[in-house]
């Protein structure tokens, strides 16, 4: 049974060409998450949070989902993934793709969907014959980013197709890993939330407010090693001490990059 989701869903105030799409999306989201679908009326989103005693409001606007929180608004945006894919198309490298050693046809388990940018790059790298399954422990983040991946248009056909191929599950990583068979994925990837953010923005603040801030545990890493045929990879600050704590003794990444990748084979 899904735990109570601290949110309601509504639509934008004024009708326009997306009115029916917004109503349908709000109704489907409410049913899927088991939350109230409430009328907007003339209320502000802050008013709705107070009226219904929730911290979050999912909003169906222009046929897409956004998440309004007291910390800011979260919406799907591919971020730097389009530039990273263009670089891959030109034959240039990508640190994540190299760390995961991705090739066409591989099956990837991304345990920390977040904004979805890394999952898009992974999906492009493994191609049409590959598969990326992405987990997100927050049902609200999974709803917004999953909706964006399923419906947003990509920068080009290859990016568009990569987004559509990603399978999103609202699930806790350890719980999901425990349910998988040995060697059921080629690689397992973790990108835990940094304790000190690299970037401040309304969207990232909203993401951090809803994200799972727990540190990665040795038990989760052990389950990932059981599930991964080839390797387990974690993204972190090199100086954080997390690589050493969890046993990632091979650390790779750009010389001037603010983040690195721990690799466990």
TrEMBL record:
SUPFAM superfamilies listed in its UniProt record: S-adenosyl-L-methionine-dependent methyltransferases
One Gene Ontology MF term: rRNA (guanine-N2-)-methyltransferase activity
Gene3D superfamilies: Vaccinia Virus protein VP39
CDD domains: AdoMet_MTases
Name listed for the protein in its UniProt record: SAM-dependent methyltransferase
Organism: Selenomonas artemidis F0399
């Amino acid at each position: 049974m899904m735990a109570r989701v601290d949110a309601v869903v509504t639509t934008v105030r004024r009708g326009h060409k997306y009115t029916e799409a917004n109503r349908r999306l709000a109704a489907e989201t409410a049913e899927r998450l088991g939350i109230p679908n409430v009328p907007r009326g003339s209320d502000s989103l802050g008013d709705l949070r107070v009226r219904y005693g929730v911290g979050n409001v999912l909003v169906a606007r222009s046929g897409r989902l956004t998440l309004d929180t007291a910390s800011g608004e979260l919406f799907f945006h591919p971020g730097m993934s389009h530039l990273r894919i263009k670089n891959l198309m030109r034959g240039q490298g990508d640190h994540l793709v190299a760390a995961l050693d991705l090739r066409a046809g591989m099956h990837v388990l991304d345990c920390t969907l977040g904004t979805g940018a890394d999952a898009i790059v992974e999906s492009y790298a493994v191609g049409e014959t590959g598969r990326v399954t992405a987990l997100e422990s927050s049902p609200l983040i999974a709803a917004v980013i999953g909706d964006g991946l399923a419906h947003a248009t990509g920068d080009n056909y290859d990016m568009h197709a990569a987004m559509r191929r990603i399978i999103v599950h609202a699930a806790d990583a350890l719980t999901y890993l425990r349910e998988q068979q040995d060697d059921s994925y080629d690689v397992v990837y973790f990108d835990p939330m940094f304790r000190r953010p690299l970037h401040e923005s309304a969207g990232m603040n909203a993401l951090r407010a809803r994200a799972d801030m727990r540190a990665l545990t040795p038990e989760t890493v052990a389950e990932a090693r059981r599930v991964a045929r080839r390797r387990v990879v974690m993204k972190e600050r090199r100086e954080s001490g997390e690589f050493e704590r969890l046993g990632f003794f091979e650390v790779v990444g750009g010389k001037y990059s603010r983040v690195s990748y721990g690799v466990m084979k």
